[in-house]
Amino acid sequence: MIQSVFTIAIILTIAIIAISFVLSKNSSKDKYTSYFPSIILIIIGLLLLGAASLFDKIEIMGAGLGGWGIASLFAAAIGLIITSILDTYANANAKAKA
């Protein structure tokens, strides 16, 4: 079960980083749209953790709802960190060119 939660978290992290990278390249530098996928994943993770305490054992691909919630929160945290680093780097380069 731990291995499936780690696998899910890694896959979600890669997906969130890719989506945030594409959104940051396609939006203006003053917008915060690149942070929205991670924020949505935080909300989903909290809902899954709440649902895990309400329902009986429900497993999806070898992990319970709580495991999916933990994996989602982990992916969102790492995604937010990497997105903020990419955003800071992009804004620093934009100011240096101006």
UniProtKB/TrEMBL annotation:
Alphabetically ordered keywords of this record: Membrane, Transmembrane, Transmembrane helix
Reading the lineage from the top rank, the first entry is: Bacteria
Q: Which residues cross the membrane?
A: 6-23, 35-55, 67-90
**Name of the protein this chain belongs to:** YesK-like protein
